[in-house]
Amino acid sequence: MNVIDEGNGELVGWEHPDDVRKWNREKRSRAFEDKRMTASEAVERFVDDSDLLASGGFGHVRISTPILHEIVRQDIADLTLSGKTTVFDADLLIAAGAVSKVEAAYCFAHETRGLAPASRRRVEEGDVDVVAEASNATLQWRFLAAKMGVPFVPARILAGTETFEKSAAKIVEDPWTREPITLIPACYPDVACIHVSKADKHGNAVIDGISVEDPELAGAAKRLIVTTEEIVDSDELRARPKDVEIPYFLVDAVVEAPYGSHPGEMPYQYYFDEDHLEEWMDLTATEEGLEEYLERYITGTEDFAEYLEAVGGEERLAELEAIENYERPDTGGPEGGERV
Amino acid sequence: MNEEYTSTELLTTVASSLIEDESTIIVGTGMPMLAAMLAQRTHAPDATMIYEAGGIGPEAPELPISVGDERTFHRGVKAAGMHDVMSYMSAGFVDVGFLGAAQIDRYGNLNSTVIGDWERPTVRFPGSGGANDIGSLAHETIVTMHQDETSFVEELDFLTTPGYLDGPGERKDAGLPAETGPTHVITQYGVYGFDDNCELTLEFLHPGVEEATINEESGFRIHAGTYDRSPEPTAEQLRLLREEIDPRGIIR
Lengths: 340, 252
Prior knowledge:
The structure holds two protein chains of two kinds.
Chain A: E1 3-6, H1 17-27, H2 39-46, E2 52-55, H3 65-73, E3 79-83, H4 88-95, E4 99-104, H5 117-124, E5 129-133, H6 136-148, E6 152-155, H7 162-165, E7 170-173, E8 180-185, E9 191-199, E10 205-206, H8 214-220, E11 224-231, H9 234-238, E12 244-246, E13 253-256, H10 274-283, H11 287-297, H12 304-310, H13 313-324
Parallel strand pairs in A: 2-3, 2-9, 3-4, 4-5, 9-11, 11-13
Antiparallel strand pairs in A: 1-7, 6-8, 7-8, 9-10, 10-12
Helix pairs in contact in A: 2-3, 4-5, 6-8
Chain B: H1 7-17, E1 24-26, H2 31-41, E2 48-50, E3 55-56, E4 78-79, H3 82-90, E5 96-99, E6 103-104, E7 110-111, E8 114-116, E9 121-124, H4 131-137, E10 140-144, H5 170-174, E11 182-186, E12 190-194, E13 200-205, H6 211-216, E14 228-229, H7 235-245
Parallel strand pairs in B: 1-2, 1-5, 5-10, 10-11, 13-14
Antiparallel strand pairs in B: 3-4, 6-7, 8-9, 11-12, 12-13
């Protein structure tokens, strides 16, 4: 096949499909075992320094905050972050100094809330390197190729741009049309954390609402930590098997984590905590403020339950549930604006 | 003119008029979303909004603040995933995509990645997000952005998303789908289209804007041959925007 052009971005997370097949045969259990553990245990067992990490959901929607917190508490360092539609998740990890490299589709910003003060500071001052550019479809198709166990998938994106030049994709002559086609290489994250609506103790998991790119990411990750709003009996899931997005054999750890997406949204359950996110944006404008945030909410708390108390406990969480369900209090609602 | 209106309201009604009935539109949050909702309530009841994270055809009583939150699929046609939406778009089911950018050049190429050097940027923006995908795969794209000498540039600091690249035929030669590309650019001064050489050309000048302004506020020469004036928002459009679509005034 004639290679017409190739990007010079770092090829993050690519492996020979046979090496991953071997890994999946030897390291991933098929047993219906009880995989429940705490967030602390899950990070101790499955997240290492220098890993390639991908965070599920949509950056500030259905994110796995307890795992992000534990990565900070356990002082995990030198991570490469898969900057798929990342928002609060990336900003927190980059701000806290856990990340040294990013492959960026969407990173360093909070959608309508504007650019992220802390992670932008890190990347503009050179503490974090963008080693490759991507687009949302690029990363999600990198995960699809990995899930399919093939070295790449073809797609009609990236061509003609500097996003391509700084990516790890290649353009070849398609043997059918004889025209150029972009090949998107597979990406196997060392570890992914995905927050779900319901899971059983084996890891079978249901995502209510949009799945974003988690069905692909779950199939691509070499280790998968699932955090869940609720652990349910397997019989409940066997009664609705079509709703299970992630089957148990892809899952290494199951962490029960009610309100686990806070301060992000959990569709149908609770809304963004805009007050908390505003506090994050304000404090992280300076290094001193960032330290204050980390001490108040993460390193100064024992676990996620203590964090939830620190952000306002049951009363605040009930307000967020009301907003999500369109029962907005008269004050304290979210503000939007132009997308940056 | 019926009553006072804001700049955003004018841009919203102008963008709305470009949305056809029985079409599919990928939007982000912000003004284009209002424009699509306004179109649905006026001339385009069967226009369907699609969000890149997976939401298709929502009927939500309030605005999303993320392109992945519940408001993007509330009472929707389908709560899908990104792979579904990107695939439908690649297969030709998405008619129009709305995009924003920090910089644009005469061929409609967009930068949303960096200002300055890529290795050590002066300003780091979020990157492509879904923009490169939408700019590559939607049948047409409409760009909405702020216009001045630093955003309308002779040379982009970084080409994130393809417009017409270096001119006619370039997209097809690069391998992008046939008959795709930007059709309109909406700024605070007017609406631009693209001429036979794929270069930006003035189509509509907004009310009260002088023709000379469009070139004073551009780093490259914009052709202004025959053009019309953008219609002002009607009383009914303003009522819909203020009372039904965005009563809390989140996007003004």
